[in-house]
Amino acid sequence: MGRSFKKLKPKSMILIPARAGTSNISRQNLRLVGNKPLMYYVIKSALQITPYVYVSTDSYEIKEISKLYGAKIINRPKNLTKNSTNLEDIAYDAISKICKENNFEKCLILNPKYPLIKNSTIKKFLSILSNNIQTVYGFEYNPEHQYKKISFTGKDIGKILNDIPNCVITEKIVSFNIQIFLKSKKFQSPFFGLKLSENEPLALNSYHDFGILEKILNRKRIMVRVDGSDAIGLGHVHNMLTILNHFRNEEILIVMNSKNNLGQQKFQEYLYQVKTFKNNSELQNITQQFNPDIVFNDILDTGIEYMKSISGKKIFIVNFEDLGKGKKYANLVFNPIYHSTKNSPNEYYGPNFACVRDEFRMWKPTKLRNIPKNVTIIFGGLDPTNKTPKILNLIKKFQLKNIHYSVVIGHDYKERKKLLKLILKMKEENFQITLNENVDFLSKIFHESDFAITSNGRTVFELGSLHVPMIVIPVNARENRHTFVDKYDVGYMVQLNDNLSYKKFLKSFKNMCKFNERKKFQNNLKQINLLNGVERVVSTINTSYEHYNK
Description:
The chain is of the alpha/beta class.
């Protein structure tokens, strides 16, 4: 004999009350948002949790649309369609009809005017219910106030909430145990309050609210994978900060290796959400949980394995300063610091795509002086290869006086004490030197410069945006490949050797002091519009992303 099994009853159902008329907005539940009727969003979220989703309505149009999106229909009588109708009466009418066919244990009521309720929140509303908790209300409050954990155990939920400053019940979002409810036709104690997260309590009570909702629904999720540490400096971090300033409506997550403390601090200073990982497995978990629409990679050369792990999942990938094998898996690659004669449809080279920080837009280009008065020396805030004292020693060696030197270092520069000792000694020999530490407004120093001595990284674009000629000294083999200064003839480049090329440096310095040489470099810089690079990058990303999603 075959076994006979008792059919298990479904545990949870979701009820969506949606009448034809509303008090504030014409056809509110049917109004299009993101090319979908408002009803769509709660139905979609509910169906991801349970197939038992019911819409209680008096509207033929709402019935047809709800069925189209997969919900079941409960006809609501006319006497329950008034503004003053009690939610408990609506729930009792619908559930008593539904339970003639299915004996559910739990019910969650979702109001279509709250379309941003997360799936995880829906699950919480249902999972919290137990013998000890008969009813769960959603609530919101002012996040700037300090609150205790809230658990409602009395009958008068209104009184309890009134005792908590700025705490408000979210209208028509409530879960409850069905059998107890059917006996009394009332939501019963013990009660529990579930705090809704950011944006979830957004209720559509006005036409203005629809505009806000439209913006939120159109938000893209951008995950930024970037490196910034003592070893490599903060160039990549500043590049991403500049670009992200132009993405004002997106949800942004910064992802960094847990060792990149310096970079983490900088992003947190600018109030970005930061998550860290220790290995590839943790990175993949973060990616899966965040589920980005777009990934920015500013990590130098990417590998095939990493790029494959994030490609092919409907993720739009944008890489910066990438010459690695993994770049072929990116949708866009921006390499402003390199030059290429290849005409790749998704790769963009050259200074037209350099992203200069916003502060450099505030200044007019540097005026050309007949005799140079001020020279800036900067090798990044960290100067990891310790080029700053080497340059100062050359200046000391060749007695290059009668010029003021503005030296720039960051707070994490490792050889600060030795540098201070050297500067003090040079001052005693009548050299004019100012040490600038932890500079917040670097553009001012650059603007006052007749020329600069710097590394061959992204700083050359910031100097170039103000028409400041430069002597560049690559600090590693990679910077030897940066071509901006040589190709566009905007300064001198002293190639990297085991030791600095003393003679070439001296020659470059003396030539830079000549008016005609600096004028030539400035004229060449005037031909390059470096300040619009970030707009070109952002525009290219947005346009390409739109085509990608068609």
